[in-house]
From TrEMBL:
Highest rank taxon of the organism: Bacteria
Native organism: Enterovirga rhinocerotis
GO biological process: one example: siderophore transmembrane transport
Domain TonB-dependent receptor plug span(s) in chain numbering: 126-236
Record protein name field: Iron complex outermembrane receptor protein
Length: 810
């Protein structure tokens, strides 16, 4: 791995600013070129794979499966109905089992001739030597308050910590990647139909991903995501959309409940001859559990697939998401216990100094409003033993984040263009994985960023202006070599080259500052200013990530594997450009009276190195009779781990590279069909992430990572039409809030109950009671370097909630 530092963007280098201008014309031209290319059967991140894959979940029994839509019996729709019956029957036979397909796969290396893509894709993922999982649509659609947090809750190794309970920004981390950002905007590649919604620098807004419009959610943990172009330690999430072929007919869902929750979704799909299409409209809104806690999201998406020939297919995508939510902020431990629905009003001034540090949410009214437009195409073609997969995508993101006064209002607007080419060679038609696979992905983008004062929830004077450019090139090649019956050796190598360029366009000699009186926090003090320091930089990062895996399938339904791999993750612009020196009552750059000789800078631009890792892991997944299991353990040695630090008041200190850290974890799940009417499942994630001989933090645990996370689910099926599911979420041990391990969040256990009843082939009703025992707990916390015991760092989870809904399918 190497890093080069340029104080300015490299002269003579082509700027990606064209990405936001004639890009649509370029993309449409790419579509025309792609017509002569290739196609995927669905939008799985595995080339040519289907979308309905078997995770470790409790699914509905066959009799209670979603009714098949009724369509008019025209000549065109008879073929659709016949194909859909085949797919539904396959899916129903899988859903009849709690965690895995009931019928054994005939051979680990010999798929059934003519088997549908769903079964083949499931077999391929189970054969991969790494951590994988899939969340099916049936797990998501019955939620009264469907969020990405709930969609991922059943996956071992994926830790989701709610921030505000709605469609906002929960902390999602896999194997600790991106753990210490507030909010998390790095560490995972987020894909939609195989194309990234991450920006070109790797950052993302997790609330833009909509599980309501997802047919399956694929999870790739760790190095196994390298083949997708992921230059992160955690891995990748791929949100797979339904198509007109997989979901013909129409579906309408309406649900609502506590705290003003209301969800409505409409979906319609068709297929005729060699063309299919699907459109989705979704609206979700919520007043929220807390006093300042509203959220809303509107999403529109469509896709059209064309089969140009038996071996050449193309799918076009377009979508728009508009997201907005209040940032209710943290509470102190005492306030959390007394009334978790309130919001914090900032520090209290006493004769001996300020106590209870934290943001004044009532005054500053932090909020985020983000919209994203996405358009793309993906084409696949098979030529004998050769598979070619070609994709183009473009996203335009408009993001406004009104932080508390310490950071101010941040606006980021820009576009990103992605091109992907993947090749696979599979000379043996009976094998599950290609003998050779290679891919190249290039993402380039630019954005204009502005920083403004937050004056009591109103955007004030501008104190920062930057043009941000980024590009990331990811190359991958891998082999799956059969070296013995049922034994496969899988070596691979990936290379990443990333650029991060920033041009400071703020033209004034000083940057304005603002402050409120600490004793009278709603009284604005006279305006101030600090000298302008140039924040321009140019950074280049490159690194190799090799891996070597060995897998053994003693029987068709089991895979045992071991692997060693390298990881590489460059910083994002949010790591490289941060507001600093603010307080709960003053803006970034405001001079601190307690330290008059400290630099009065509003920004920090650390010269960060890329984060690298070496990981060893091993696992065993399989099924036997009515039992299914999936267990993976890993140990990572990480150099230069990227940490985003905050002080005792919760204000940003910027990002740093830690020295050596280690991440050890266990990701496990087991499920069983106990009787014809009773199924059970349990998941367990263990995390021990530590500094290693750090001069300040010693061997402390990294803040924010719960050591034990336990999930359990019990499903009762009294009749063919009715099911009842109880679920437990349990963190049995306290979690450190700060890297010094002085303040902890308490353990908690939350129990949920939901039920579903199928009235007839068209209508299904469902209901849910969340947090039955009305537990008061911190679902998440801010993560700081050194915390105070009286600090506002705890983010309350929802209290008892009630939801109900109806789903109609035709």
């Amino acid at each position: 791995m190497s890093v080069s530092d340029r104080s300015e963007p490299a002269p003579g280098r082509v700027s990606p600013r064209w990405a936001t201008r004639p890009i649509l014309q370029v993309l449409l031209q790419g579509f025309l070129v792609g017509v002569s290319g290739t196609a995927v059967l669905a939008q799985s991140a595995t080339p040519g794979a289907g979308v309905e894959l078997a995770p470790i979940v409790v699914d509905r029994p066959q009799a209670a499966a979603t009714a098949r839509p009724v369509v008019r019996r025209t000549t065109a729709t008879r073929a659709v109905s016949a194909r859909r019956r085949n797919i539904r029957d396959h899916s129903a036979s899988r859903d009849a089992r709690p965690i895995a397909p009931a019928q054994p796969v005939p051979s680990a290396s010999a798929p059934l001739p003519g088997a549908d893509p769903v079964l083949l894709a499931r077999q391929r993922l189970e054969a991969m030597p790494g951590g994988t999982a899939v969340v099916s649509q049936s797990q998501i659609q019955d939620e009264g308050n469907p969020t990405i947090s709930k969609a991922l809750r059943s996956v071992p190794g994926v830790i989701v910590q709610d921030f505000f309970g709605g469609n906002d920004q929960p902390r999602i981390q896999i194997r600790g990647s991106g753990l210490q950002q507030n909010p998390v905007e790095r560490g995972i590649m987020v894909l939609q139909n195989g194309l990234p919604i991450n920006r070109a620098d790797g950052s993302y807004v997790v609330g833009l991903a909509n599980p309501n419009q997802t047919e399956a959610l694929e999870v790739y943990r760790g190095y196994i995501a390298n083949r997708l172009g992921a230059t992160v330690l955690g891995g990748a999430l791929n949100f797979v959309s339904p198509t007109g072929s997989s979901a013909p007919g129409a579906r309408f869902t309406l649900s609502g409940g506590s705290y003003g929750q209301l969800n409505a979704g409409l979906q319609a799909g068709f297929r005729q001859d060699n063309i299919d299409g699907l459109i989705q409209v979704d609206r979700s809104q919520r007043d929220g559990y807390r006093a300042y806690n509203s959220s809303e999201r509107t999403s529109v998406a469509a896709n059209v697939g064309v089969a140009w020939a038996d071996n050449i297919k193309t799918r076009f995508f377009i979508g728009y998401t508009d997201l907005g939510f209040d940032v209710a902020g943290p509470l102190t431990r005492d306030l959390l216990s007394a009334n978790p629905r309130q919001v914090f009003t900032g520090p209290t001034v006493t004769p001996s100094g300020a106590i209870n540090p934290g943001p004044n949410v009532v005054r500053d009214r932090p909020r985020r409003e983000t919209s994203q437009f996405l358009i793309g195409q993906r084409t696949s073609a098979t030529f004998g033993a050769h598979l070619v997969d070609f994709a183009l995508g473009y996203t335009y993101t408009d993001d406004m984040f009104r932080f508390p006064i310490s950071s101010g209002v941040r606006t980021t607007r820009g576009g990103d263009f992605t091109t992907l080419l993947r090749y696979g060679y599979k000379p043996d038609e009976t094998s599950l994985l290609p003998l050779f696979e290679s891919s190249a992905q290039y993402t380039i983008g630019s954005a204009r960023r502005g920083n403004y004062l937050n004056l009591g929830g109103v955007q004030g004077s501008q104190f920062g202006s930057n043009d941000l450019d980024a590009s990331t090139l990811s190359l991958y090649s891998g082999l799956n070599i059969p070296i013995w019956p049922a034994v496969t050796l899988s070596p691979s190598i990936s290379y990443a080259y990333a650029t991060r360029d920033n041009r400071d366009t703020f033209g004034l000699a000083t940057r304005p500052t603002a402050a409120f009186s600490p004793a009278r926090p709603y009284t604005l003090l006279p305006n101030g200013a600090v000298p302008t320091q140039d924040t321009s930089y140019g950074r280049t990062y490159q690194g190799w990530s090799p891996s070597l895996a060995l897998s053994y399938r003693p029987v068709p339904d089991q895979t045992i594997f071991a692997a060693v791999s390298g990881g590489f993750e460059p910083p994002t612009h949010d790591d490289l450009l941060a507001t600093v020196n603010g307080t709960p009552n003053s803006s970034a750059g405001r001079p601190n009276p307690a330290a008059p000789f400290a630099p009065a800078d509003a920004f920090r631009t650390p010269n960060l190195k890329a984060q690298t890792a070496t990981t060893v892991e091993g696992g065993w997944r399989g099924r036997q009779d009515n039992l299914s299991w999936d267990v993976v353990s890993y140990y990572s040695w990480i150099d230069n781990e990227l940490l985003s630090l905050r002080d005792a008041a919760g204000s940003s200190l910027g990002a740093i590279n830690a020295g050596r850290t280690t991440h050890f974890g266990i990701e496990g799940g087991i499920g069983a069909k106990l009787t014809d009417w009773l199924s059970a499942r349990a998941t367990y994630t263990y995390q021990d992430f530590r500094f290693q001989n750090d001069p300040i933090r010693g061997n402390n645990r990294l803040a924010g990572a719960p050591r034990h996370v336990v999930g359990a689910m019990l499903q009762l099926q009294p009749t063919a039409e009715w099911k009842i599911v109880g679920a437990l979420r349990w963190q049995p041990e306290k979690t450190p809030v700060d890297n010094m391990n002085t303040v902890y969040a308490k353990p908690f256990a939350v129990v949920d109950l939901k039920t579903e009843y199928r009235i007839n082939e068209h209508f299904t009703v469902f209901g849910e009671v969340g947090n039955i025992f009305n537990e008061r707990y911190a679902a998440s916390t801010l993560i700081v370097d050194v915390a105070r015991r009286d600090q506002a760092v705890y983010l309350p989870g929802d209290g008892r909630t009630f939801y109900a809904g109806v789903r109609a399918t035709y």
